[in-house]
Amino acid sequence: MSDPINTCPIQLTDAGQLRHFLTTEGLPRTLLTEILDTADSFVDMSEQQVKKVPLLRGKTVVNLFFEASTRTLSTFELAAKRLSADVLNLNISTSSTKKGETLKDTLMTLRAMHSDMFVVRHSDSGAAHFIASQVTPDVAVINAGDGRHAHPTQAMLDMLTIRRHKGEFEPLKVAIVGDILHSRVARSQIHALRTLGAAEIRVIAPLTLLPRNIESLGVKVFTDMARGLRDVDVVMMLRLQKERMESALLPSESEFYKLYGLTNDKLAFAHPEAIVMHPGPINRGVEIESAVADGPRSVILDQVTNGIAVRMAVMSMAMSGQLADKNTSADADNLNA
Amino acid sequence: MSDPINTCPIQLTDAGQLRHFLTTEGLPRTLLTEILDTADSFVDMSEQQVKKVPLLRGKTVVNLFFEASTRTLSTFELAAKRLSADVLNLNISTSSTKKGETLKDTLMTLRAMHSDMFVVRHSDSGAAHFIASQVTPDVAVINAGDGRHAHPTQAMLDMLTIRRHKGEFEPLKVAIVGDILHSRVARSQIHALRTLGAAEIRVIAPLTLLPRNIESLGVKVFTDMARGLRDVDVVMMLRLQKERMESALLPSESEFYKLYGLTNDKLAFAHPEAIVMHPGPINRGVEIESAVADGPRSVILDQVTNGIAVRMAVMSMAMSGQLADKNTSADADNLNA
Amino acid sequence: MSDPINTCPIQLTDAGQLRHFLTTEGLPRTLLTEILDTADSFVDMSEQQVKKVPLLRGKTVVNLFFEASTRTLSTFELAAKRLSADVLNLNISTSSTKKGETLKDTLMTLRAMHSDMFVVRHSDSGAAHFIASQVTPDVAVINAGDGRHAHPTQAMLDMLTIRRHKGEFEPLKVAIVGDILHSRVARSQIHALRTLGAAEIRVIAPLTLLPRNIESLGVKVFTDMARGLRDVDVVMMLRLQKERMESALLPSESEFYKLYGLTNDKLAFAHPEAIVMHPGPINRGVEIESAVADGPRSVILDQVTNGIAVRMAVMSMAMSGQLADKNTSADADNLNA
């Protein structure tokens, strides 16, 4: 599980402000906490009659989706609109590539249109990082999922959900269950949980769905639900990415469900007040039993609500950082001139 | 023509306000009149320089189209934007179902995003009603056409058009012509016309395109245009839903046109000041002759204009009702706590 | 190169204001200059923190694209949103034509929805002009490219780019290079350059890609880059419209590149301070060498930035003209009544 995009200094301005949001890895705890605090205020706002603030008024947010995802696109579109941004949705696979334009030309063109922010979804690991490297300091980039690498807004909405239900991270035992190997979500969750100081992070999966050297990320590995779930405070289920799965890795969906699907029987191993999470969309009867998904310990719909708030938080914070950074660059240019 | 969703009490709050708009059936005359009065004010507004009011500012309207309809979607999208709502268009057939999510999960997810209103189009009769039952009291639902069941905003824009041209409903003889069997529009029109007190409602169609027991709705049945159109004040043509028509029901388009297509010759049977209506899009030379569609008695384009106003009216009224209802529910929860 | 839509008086109100923007041909120099001056102010605005003005607030702009073009659509969508308009994107090929509606019915329906402006893209020459003739004076029409006829906003963004880099037009020698035959862009550029007073306009192309009688437009014809580019101040490359090209006209892409592709070697024939332009998207290695496209004399990305500003300019000007015109018509109606 070596990662070529390790610490990602490009995410922060020289003054330490968020400028892009590409990965949870390497971000300081104070910054993750600032994201959660800001998101908390947006959760409150979304219960108001007028769910709208002018923080991104007159700004242009481009949803640059190279990989289709209606659900993720919708959350970013709503978050941007509730921040009063002008929003442009671009499904890139069906447009400029048809006319043979290179990715870089597409990026330079969108930047020249005075876009302020790209929300990027791409099937290649590192794509958001590459794009950020091309458009800094003019455009802020939010990673909405890149290959197997990272899905940092998903991880942060999970952290927000945990904090709102459990308070502090320090005492928590957290288990991440399922297809760790293909999951950008799991990677981002592990980095965030470690930084925020969770007591113990466990991953539970069959050996075929575990990356090599996963222990190096600071997690305990289990291949058995009974032992892995024992006394945990948080159970984070992953989606079975059927579309990403090579044929040989799994015997069958029903076999997976039997061993790793979260049922009330298996949930009994966890702490009696454990919460159950899932990034959605749920495959009922594959990763999770309906009785659990819809049960009293499920916080799955809270995750959705918190997802809008977290996206509003990182979008407004990255826009502030990008703006501060652009002004600094301009000042530096003036001094050098 | 038995109807499992008969009176639909879910549409109204306990205080009698509109909360969803699912069907014209069973709604009291005062409420239909309130819709028409409110829509009248929006017709006036749409002639102003700035066609925009802040009634839905900070609200999220999701156009949830399980069945494609560019024209209907456009009218709802424009109506929502002129009410200052944030709008999300979702074509459901091509998104979450692909990932295997259930309809209910999609609804719960959208509700958790703090959506305030769903505009629903679906090929199944009763779909809008089912969706409303799942999301009350958090989300207001507007039916934009469900199967053969209802298309209530179409019916109300027709009522508005009749009232603006003819004044009172009581003295009017109205004929509905065409494919009654497959038409959700006809059902909604008949309910609205009865409630608003039209003197006489006629349906004119070949026997193969008439539902059984249609007389139980309080209409007179004709299979012949000459007799059916005699002295009517309003002629409401229906679309020939080619895509819905089973092969055996109709001999051919030209045969249909010969017998039921509205030509100036046939229109001569009606009252000399009769108006001609059609929900659009028109099949020229199939349901209607161009000379009639574009002639002095056609009010087809008025229907389009009135359609935006009626949609703005029911959207703003349902939002008020849903809001009042949500507050009442919250109060009740507090009392019970 | 005879042109059935020659002078296009429909574009202007009786008072000489822009009402539609269909072609650069026949427009007076004062008006083209007004467009450039207005666009200049929008370029300045787009560098501000809040890139938004309320000029089209409460107005409905419909992007009516009969031919897909993500890039052009995006620029018009952004321009409209930065003018605070409500925007509706309609891809017509996939919607109403499917239900058999005629173009005219579609137009009348959209007009009846109180649309204020259509941005029209169509594969037929003259389509925007026809549409304008149908909806005057209620709706302003902006031509976003019609067949081989015109692409006037592209031409005006090119003019703005030239003026911002070179100042006055009078002393300039300008070369247009590539597929002149199929290019609506070239036609619109030639008309604009002549009206604005450029000293010399050259076209450079193989004989097979030159329209007959092109000289009648007031240009000098070259089939050779070395002679055609000599001492020019501006090199305007065209896109090779592969999708429009009949098989027999060109030997091959590499053959074209060898003879007409803009390389630094060929650019050496031009004036040392010549600027290089291209409407995008670029086919690198077909029309232009990467070293030129990304080099110090390329102003290709300025064209993109100026494109938003020019679109905002013509949209706001046409809306003013259409409004003045509508009021005049209404006054005339009142006088006649």
Provide the fold topology.
The structure is a homotrimer of 337-residue chains.
Chain A: H1 29-45, E1 60-65, H2 70-82, E2 86-91, H3 103-112, E3 117-122, H4 127-135, E4 140-146, H5 152-166, E5 173-177, H6 184-196, E6 200-204, E7 220-222, H7 225-228, E8 234-237, H8 253-260, H9 264-267, E9 275-277, H10 290-293, H11 300-336
Parallel strand pairs in A: 1-2, 1-3, 3-4, 5-6, 5-8, 6-7, 8-9
Helix pairs in contact in A: 1-5, 1-11, 2-11, 5-6, 5-11
In short:
The structure is a homotrimer of 337-residue chains. Chain A is α/β, with parallel strands linked by helices and 337 residues long. Chain A is 40% helix and 13% strand.
Descriptive account of the structure:
3 copies of one chain form a homotrimer. Chain A has 337 residues and is α/β, with parallel strands linked by helices. Chain A has 2 domains: 9-149 and 304-323, 3-Layer(aba) Sandwich (Rossmann fold); 152-299, Rossmann fold (3-Layer(aba) Sandwich). Helix content of chain A is 40%, strand content 13%. The first copy, chain A, is built from 11 helices and 9 strands. Chain A has helices spanning 29-45, 70-82, 103-112, 127-135, 152-166, 184-196, 225-228, 253-260, 264-267, 290-293, 300-336; strands at residues 60-65, 86-91, 117-122, 140-146, 173-177, 200-204, 220-222, 234-237, 275-277. In chain A, helix 1 (29-45) crosses helix 11, helix 5 packs across helix 6 and helix 5 packs across helix 11 (300-336). The longest helix of chain A is centred in the last third of the chain and has 37 residues, at 300-336. The first copy, chain A, is globular. The model of chain A is unreliable at 1-6 (pLDDT under 50). The A-B interface holds A 46-52, 68, 70-71, 74-75, 77-78, 81-82, 280-284, 301-302, 304-305, 307-308 and B 57-60, 86, 88, 90, 94-96, 99-102, 105-106, 108-114, 323.
